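Subject line: Sequence and fold of a protein, written as structure tokens
Enclosed: The protein record, placed directly beneath this head.
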Amino acid sequence: MSDTKVYLLDGGSLVLDGFHVFWNKGPGGEVRFPVYSILIEHAEGRFLIDTGYDYDHVMKVLPFEKPMQTKEQTIPGALAKLGLEPKDIDVVFNSHFHFDHCGGNKYFPHAKKICHKLEVPQTCNPQPFEVLGYSDVSFSAEAAEARGMTDQLMEGTTVANSTFEGVEGDVELAKGVKLFFTPGHSIGHYSLMVEFGNRAPILFTIDAAYTQKSLVTLCQASFHIDPVAGVNSMNRVKQLAEDHGADLMFSHDMENFKTYRTGTQFYG
């Protein structure tokens, strides 16, 4: 673990109203928030956690989220800054399949793919209030066929090369790379902790808590399937951070994101 490096791949930004970021609490008004993926360079391989959003998809389906994304902020562009190509990634783990976490999956037909066992079925048949969240099905031929949305599939995407290994409960992806089951935001949501040899672990809340304020106030985002489970998961994240002496990093917190290392900078 001493050589483990963690890169944050800046994927651009989106906008939501404050009453969606802080469900039923606000204050209202536009909140621009970052989107990023997590690349882990590890002795056991290269692991990519989530793949950000696809600009064209958002402009077509959710233009009110006002995407801002340069070529360098696409997954291929962010990897290129590190001298890498999509083919260099060994494993893609999706914390969940909301559109801003799976938009770049289509670039990794060769990689091993892992998610919670309930996430693909949920994408195939989401609740009515989840439809926008699960609107990008380009990551899965199975989901695209189930939803009648095969027009989203990149040429060459098949059931065989877009099939996921389903897991449940907590998972150790590699030595010191741990996924903690934190449902509520989605049915199969995971948060991530990475351990290092020479510094405190980093616990990525992913979407269990969009921002530091979300975690402090236990106020989750309006995109969720089970608000009670969501609050329980927030409390679990707090306890995990305390138990492991971990630094917390948040998924959609612009103020904190401005202080994070991105691009060629890394944590390790």
User: Anything to note?
Assistant: DSSP finds nine helices and eleven strands in the chain. The longest strand covers residues 5-17. The radius of gyration is 17 Å.
